[in-house]
Amino acid sequence: MQAKDKENLRSFYETELDKYGVDYRSLHWNSARSQLVRFDVLKDIGLDPGCSVLDIGCGLGDLYGYLKEKNGAFTYAGYDISTKMVETARERFPEACFIVRDILEEKCAPESFDYVVASGTFNVKISGHDSFLRDMICAMYRACKKGVGFNLLERMDYDWYSSDRFYTASLDETVAFCSTISPRSEVKTGYLTGDFTVFVYK
């Protein structure tokens, strides 16, 4: 990711955080429900009690709060490139581990966590986004022991989302790329219009 893109992403989300505070709108979700629906789908990869999970683009720590309510005991780390987001997540959940970190610049040790997940992390468009997404999937896969899960906005024939601001992906192309990493992947669709989730297993 180029420095200007990273700064633009930080500025985008931190401006929303200043405007809305601890709220789903700070993360640019359509609703609190849509965020929880995506979490429900991601959980199906195997985010069960006792697992370890790395949350890429953790934002305000909402996935941690969700898993804490659902799972009880589990090991969690959340990474984000925004210092303000991480500081807010730490205030909300002081017992959890939140770190300012870009895994493309500061790579994770191989197989550090059972699962590495990202929810909404790839939705805001940056330059060279296709290459960025592929690099991130590879970095996430390197860090997992069992699997990677992430969601994307689906590229469709109509303008469901603003193409100037949001990145949309081809489901078929995404799955084809993931098949070059692992012979075992799974796609979840139908839970929200214009959204899909991919699981890539080791």
The total of helices stands at 6
CATH classification class: Alpha Beta
Biggest sheet character: 8 strands, mixed
- Under CATH, the homologous superfamily reads Vaccinia Virus protein VP39
How much strand content do the residues show?
Answer: 15-25%
* Through-space gap between termini: 26 Å
CATH fold name: Rossmann fold
Overall tally of structural domains: 1
Query: Per CATH, which architecture?
Result: 3-Layer(aba) Sandwich
**How would the global form be characterised?**
globular
User: Structural class of the secondary elements?
Assistant: alpha/beta
Low-confidence stretches: none
Run of helices and strands: HHEHEHEEHEEHEE
Structure description:
The protein is of the alpha/beta class and 202 residues long. It has one domain (3-201): Vaccinia Virus protein VP39 (Rossmann fold). The chain is 37% helix and 22% strand. It contains six helices and eight strands, in the order ααβαβαββαββαββ. The protein has helices spanning 3-20, 32-43, 62-71, 83-92, 129-143, 171-179; strands spanning 52-56, 75-80, 97-100, 113-118, 144-154, 168-169, 185-188, 195-201. Strands 1, 2, 3, 4, 5, 6, 7 and 8 form an eight-stranded mixed beta sheet that branches. α4 (83-92) links the parallel β2 (75-80) and β3. It starts with a helix and ends with a strand. 33% of the residues are buried. The mean pLDDT is 91.
List the helices and strands and how they pair.
Blueprint: H1 3-20, H2 32-43, E1 52-56, H3 62-71, E2 75-80, H4 83-92, E3 97-100, E4 113-118, H5 129-143, E5 144-154, E6 168-169, H6 171-179, E7 185-188, E8 195-201
